[in-house]
Amino acid sequence: MSGRSEERAKFLADRMLGTLTRRLRLMGYDTLSASSLFPGSRREDTVLLEIARAQGRMLLTRDAELARRAGEQGVLVRSEQVDEQVAQLSDLGLVSLQLSFDRCSLCNTPLRPARRREIEGAEYAPEAREGLSFFWCPVCHRLYWMGSHTRRMREEMKKNRG
Ligand SMILES: [Zn+2]
């Protein structure tokens, strides 16, 4: 898990940024998605601005007008590609490039270490568990694990840092 103690940024992402939302959660960042909050409406931009301000979240958007209205509290996400989106947030000093596995990528709930029966009950868990760490989302009842795949992802992210 992350050893960093400073307060992490929190985010609110617009409907265009579903992939970025899941990636930020995997990196351990509390990220709300507009598409899980309410059905689309004409006032959506105004509601997003209100939530971002009330909850101290950075508003991530592909919409230049919405980013302008958010001012200091908004980021206009330039790329359509998730690695470049994360790199932009990193350049702005909002995120550090790591996967900490402490938040469910589907529902944003903090993960906890998985119990043995949860690991054994998950059909999709790998058979060889040597060297793997398992985590559990108590809301989705979904198992996560950190192993060679996630190590490779972290190495890729480090490589793309420069
Ligand atoms: Zn979940």
Provide an overview of this structure:
With 162 residues, this protein is an alpha/beta fold. It has 2 domains: 11-91; 112-159, no CATH class. The protein contains 7 helices and 7 strands; from the N terminus they run βαβααβαβαβαββα. It has a 4-stranded parallel β-sheet, sandwiched between helices. A 3-stranded antiparallel β-sheet has the order 5-6-7. Strand 1 (11-13), helix 1 and strand 2 form a beta-alpha-beta unit. Zinc ion binds next to loops.
Brief synopsis:
This protein has helices at 18-26, 34-37, 44-55, 64-70, 82-91, 116-121, 148-159, and strands at residues 11-13, 31-33, 58-61, 74-76, 112-113, 133-137, 142-146.
Topology, element by element:
Elements: E1 11-13, H1 18-26, E2 31-33, H2 34-37, H3 44-55, E3 58-61, H4 64-70, E4 74-76, H5 82-91, E5 112-113, H6 116-121, E6 133-137, E7 142-146, H7 148-159
Parallel strand pairs: 1-2, 1-3, 3-4
Antiparallel strand pairs: 5-6, 6-7
The chain binds zinc ion.
Task: Let me know the average pLDDT.
Answer: 87
Main sheet specs: 4 strands, parallel
Bound molecules: zinc ion
Q: What is the number of helical segments per DSSP (H or I, 4+ residues)? A: 7
